[in-house]
Amino acid sequence: MPESRMLWGAALSASQCEGAYAEDDKGLSISDTVPSGRRDLTKRYPKPDSQHYYPTHKAVDFYHRYPEDIELMAQCGLECLRFSFAWSRFFPQGDELQPNPLAVQHYDDLIDRLLAKKIVPIVTMSHLEIPFALTEKYGGWENKEFIRCFLRYSQFLLDHYGDRVKYWITFNEMNMLLYFPCTLGVGVDLTEKPEQAKLQALHNMLTAGAWTVEYAHALNQEIQIGAMIAYSPIYPVDCRPENVAYAYALERNALSVADVLVRGKYPGTFERFVRERGLTLDRMPEELKLLAKNTVDFLATSYYCSNAASVDSTAEKSSGNLFGGARNPYLEVSEWGWQIDPLGLRYALNYLYDRYQIPLMIVENGLGARDQIVNGKIEDDYRIAYLNAHLQMVKEAEADGVELLAYTMWSFLDQVSASSGQMSKRYGLVYCDVDDEGRGTFERIPKKSFYWMQDQLKNR
Ligand code: BG6
Question: Which residues are the active-site residues?
Fold first, then answer.
């Protein structure tokens, strides 16, 4: 395969697929404390108890089944796999001086097996996953101690895996973290100024990311290091100027994090927000210099849906919207209310590339649906239709001149849903026999979409 060709593959995340949450000296992660049922990712949860079920504890058992799963990936023809390491496996308490040797051994084997099958690893260092012990000791990312602990982790990863892993993503969907402060370790209910705590946490995370970029570049020129945002274009519901301006303001807000990652500077609208709210963020001059100097090599994004915005508070709402809120009457929605918009992906890629002029990766794109097994088969034509329409738009964007490094659909296996904790919200090309309460055989069954993807990859 020519080096410059865009890679096609699929994605997974440690806390959503691995399970084995307390095995081989793994520490508790923040995601292991979120029970099933009515999950609220805006608050921090206490340690697990026996009254609740915790879906990440077993997930789909990728931790034990990865050899068989990698065989399936190879059979499908994946060119790359985007996945994450669990920080709480390497550093169970988060602040040890040396990593857990069992974690090193585990991920060594996983990487070697992928490479043996010619599947390029794209690794996320932290995907909605923080050692719980760190949050007990220091609160969340709003505490600068987190920067020091993350650097020990990220530098170890780059030292140890840098010769085998070229593509790195520091953090998953950094702009979503403000909506889900639990994943930043920030207990917003514990502080009087939630905005202050969340934005401080974000700044510290951006700083840790910039240090990591600096370290990676000094270590090995071959390494390509990026970070990830969630991007959903926000359309005004109509051409009423107030709606256009509102959609634009929401869009700028959603991209503030990417502005720092790529341009090395907070945008004016962010500074205005900080000023007008009277926030006093601790942003040291040397940190701001670090951010300016160590911008990312590529920007990774997820794309699931587009959103619409209206200043009219009585306008029909769409659920599943995080950045917008109004219902777009031209689009179908998934069962979870996410507005399906393949053309929006072409728009998004062109928009991001015009704005930032650096290579992009689409590292998540897929459809959450309730799959049914009929006569031992899963005929997920709806997922094929979704993926096919989106992949066409990726090709169009590539033809438009957008530099794309990779497209990794979400997800190779069914996994625990991040927002709902359900197993029944399935995204995989491969069905995993586990239900919402963790019952099942964990058997893997390739769905019709698996064979469809196999064909796409074969005929590139
Ligand atoms: C992204 C996350 O926001 O969306 C993934 O990076 C997540 O971890 C994916 O699984 C789909 O969302 P959900 O809530 O349907 O699992």
Answer: 173, 364
